[in-house]
Structures are given as structure tokens and as C-alpha cells.
Hints:
Elements: H1 2-14, H2 18-29, E1 35-43, E2 46-54, E3 59-64, H3 68-74, E4 78-80, E5 87-89, H4 90-95, E6 103-109, E7 122-130, E8 135-142, H5 152-155, H6 158-180, H7 188-194
Parallel strand pairs: 3-6, 6-7
Antiparallel strand pairs: 1-2, 2-3, 4-5, 7-8
Amino acid sequence: MYQxxxxxxxxxxxxxxxxELVHAFIYSQCDFEKEIVLTNHFQADWEADxxxxxxxxxxxxxxxxxxxxxxxNDFKKSYTNSNTGEKFxxxxxxxxGDYVCNAFSFLLPMGMVDHTLIPEHCxxxxxxxxxxxxxxxxxxxxxxxxxHEDAYWKLNDKDLFIRKMALNLLQRKLEIKGxxxxxxxxxxxxxxxxx
Length: 195
């Protein structure tokens, strides 16, 4: 029993955490001088693990899947149109171009999923993580198909986007600071009433 627990601890210790994977990907694959790169960004109807918007407004969502079950669940996600009540599956919505991003890719461990199971509109990026050197390498297996030509800024209010980014940054800063010291805040709704 002890050996089983020890093996599990060693395996967990050697596993790449999603934050480490995201860090390795964005710092090796993205150009911060030409691209806006966001992680865990809510847009449209889902959260993008990585959202990249280039200087021309071309947008690319990258969805990270670390297990086969998580990958399969992505195809069960649905959206309900608030006007008509119609229900759409996420990848049906993306593939027909009714989606805010121009392109969509999966970022997967090397060999985890048979490429024929991944819809043609999706790009495939695989990674290999070496636990001895702690290096992670990325391989573009298939580039994503552009699902529409509209720039991200044509479909999104740029000023609102910037305000949301600023608010998210403030919230994360306070969240991190709050982990190291106790912070006491007034209820923001009471503050607005005073104005």
C-alpha cells in the first residue's frame, strides 16, 4: 500500500500543471509585441484557455485538454440562443462561423487523441513535456481553418474589452495580495449607492 501511495505522489510531482503548460506555450509561441494574449478569458459563450488576438484583429482560441474524457466533454458543451431558445453544440456553432474567434485549436499531450477524431475546423497542437529537463516542446500538427473573416474588433467592443481586462487585472492583483494578508473591502454595491 505504501509503494502505491509513493508512486502516486511521484507521478503527481512529475505532472505538468496547466499553469506551467500555459506559461511554456505563451512564452515560446506568442509575440507579445504584436499580439494580445489572454488566459482563462470569458468570451462568447465559453471560457478560452488561451485567446490570441493579433495586430490585424485575427483571433485564435486555444483549448487545452489533458485527458481523453475532458476532450470528449468539449463536444457535449452547448449554447442556448436566448432569443429563440434553440440549442447548439459548441463545435457546430464554431464550424459554421457563428463564433467570435476566427480560429479554434486544441492543445493536447502528444498522441492522446487520434487526429481523425478532431473536426476539420480545429487546429491541432501537441506538446511533449520532458520531466527530467522540465522542457516542453510544441508541435503544430494541423493549422486551424479560418471559420470567418471578421476581425475580433468588428465583433467585440474594443473599449469594453480593455475595461474588462483592467478589471480582471485588478481582481487578480487583489486575489493574490489577499492570499498573503487579510484584506477588508466595503461592499461595492454600497459604495455605488453613495455616489
